[in-house]
Amino acid sequence: MQGLCINAPDKSNLVVGETYFLYPHGPAYHASRFSRPGSHFGTYQKKYFEIVAGVAVEAVEEWPPEPVQPAEPPRLDKGKIYEAELIWRRNSYGAQLGNYFITAINNCYSCKSDCYFYAAAALQQPQGRYPLHWFINIREYGIDVAVELPQDQWQQLKYI
Q: Sheet holding 42-45: strands in order across?
């Protein structure tokens, strides 16, 4: 939501007459010049703002509960790409719900329950790492991920 500063306390970063993005924080608001909640520059009482755009705090619905994690999560094979639909995320996370490409994580104890997800099948820029139970309709995409050879099989390329 956005609010117009109608009064500013002494020695604050607020400017009277300027519009700020506001994020509820108990009996106050986090104020920001940007539409990202983590970029706020201070917390101010509600009396300093007049809401001009967005949803009133009272009308905000509660975030739906997290899906139940199954006892046996789906197993993802190393080197394969899967398509899946993201159906839930934490309120503060930025990814949009929708279809993504996911891959297995093979380097830590939580490998079986988490996955990396990407917007494109080329897997160039990961969007994040989320638990598998936040995804549904997981199916193999059909393109193998490039797997690096062991170091003893590396060969020097010759310049011609």
A: 42-45, 28-32, 19-25, 2-5, 49-53
Closest CA to 134 of 68, 63, 62, 71: 68
Q: Residue 34 and residue 14: Cα distance in Å, rounded?
A: 14
Residue 101 has a CB neighbour count (10 Å cut-off) of: 21
Whole-model pTM?
0.53
Q: Cα angle vertex 71, ends 68, 75, to 5°?
A: 105
Per-residue pLDDT tens digits for 80-123: 889 999 999 988 787 888 999 999 887 655 567 889 999 998 88
Tell which residue, 73, 113, 78, 81, has the closest CA to residue 100: 81
Q: Which residues pair with 140 in a beta bridge?
A: 82
Q: What is the DSSP letter of 27?
A: T
Place of tokens 């997981």: 138
On whether the CB atoms of residues 43 and 105 are closer than 8 A, the answer is: no
